[in-house]
Amino acid sequence: MRRLLFILSILSSIIAYAQPSHDVRVIHEDGRSLTLEFTPAFSVQSLKAVTGQELKRISFEGEIAEQGKPGDSWISYRGIPLQFPSSHVAVTVISAESRVEEGLSPLPIPKMVRDKKFGWSPLYQSGTVARLQKRSLAEVTDVSSSLGKFIGTLRIYPVEYNQDANNAKLCTRLVVRIDFDPWNNPSAKSSVPTVGNSQGTVSPIVPASRQKVANDSPLAQGQWYKMEVRQTGIYKIDQGFLQKANIGLSSIGNINSIRIFGNGGRMLPEDLSQQRPNGLEEVARYVVDNNGNGALDPDDYVLFYGVSTRGWDYDSPTRKYTHHFSYYSEPNYYFLTFGGTLGLAMDSVASTDISGAFTPADFQEKLFLKQDRFNLI
């Protein structure tokens, strides 16, 4: 089994959510409302445009840039993930304190260009952007159902530009209240999104195929070992591999009880309404037990097909390949257990000798280079 270094890549939006919330404080929370205080820490960035002009941009801790194309207004917000018992959510601004910073105008989203040193670099441009529409200081967006509850994002926009006066009003302190339908479970908290169903019952909106995921996970029982896979191919589990992992051979029991679970290497869909696995699925494996005694002897082994996070998709109409990879993790992981129920056997197909079969002299190889040498944060 290949032993490679562990590298974890996280999107900037996820980093923003994961940082300690020094700027957000829960003032009050009960079964049907949540009151938060937001005190952003602002800083002014000095940027240089392609023309050499010095540009100023206001930023704040935990900011997330709104999606857009180069040239659109570069607007950021503070995103706070919350959970609710239903999609009925209302936001009220209780109080707001602010100050005005002169010499600030909204900048256009920079264009990313090739760079010999970093791979990609932002190309900052000066100039005016389209007039911004006035928006609320705070709003809850992206409310979607997930496992019997609703997950949404409280977006706070602490910077309000005055394009005529060339200044910006910075909200230094904001208190907002989020009202929602009452929780059936008194211990549920909107400020602490949890995995599973916080209501204690399964909502009718949850597809029946996903209702049992929290209760029948294979990881709930037995001993489990995590295996890293970085390249797609056949992987071998034998005595040497288990001993290197400090797994006692006597604990294996029947070699046919070795089971492997995983969900392939692709990312889960971001759209919560799309189909996804119910949990870890068992992977078929091929057991080689040379003397048929059921024990993992020195010349016995188990093979399974491991899939990496990278791969290729072929589009028949255009006859083109596209490359896919995970935004969040370079390696993929499979889970190993043994000593219980017999594992899922791999199907076999008898090979057939064909005389005069065509043997190609060459083939097309596909290469993809992604170095990730430049961090936009």
Structure notes:
The chain has 377 residues and is mainly beta. The chain contains 2 helices and 22 strands. Strands 1, 2, 7, 12 and 13 form a 5-stranded antiparallel β-sheet that branches. A 4-stranded antiparallel β-sheet has the order 5-6-11-10, with helices on one face. A 4-stranded antiparallel β-sheet has the order 14-22-16-17, with no helix packed on it. Strand 1 and strand 2 form a beta hairpin. The longest helix is centred in the first third of the chain and has 7 residues, at 12-18. The radius of gyration is 27 Å and the shape is extended. Mean pLDDT is 82; it is low at 1-20 and 195-214.
The rounded Rg comes to 27 Å
Helix content: under 10%
Order of helices and strands: HEEEEEEEEEEEEEEEHEEEEEEE
Largest sheet: 5 strands, antiparallel
Write down the overall geometry.
extended
Q: Mean pLDDT score, rounded?
A: 82
Count of discrete alpha- or pi-helical segments spanning 4 or more residues: 2
Q: What class, by secondary structure content?
A: mainly beta
**Could you tell me the number of beta strands?**
22
**β content, as a range?**
35-45%
CA distance, first residue to last residue:
35 Å
Uncertain parts? 1-20, 195-214
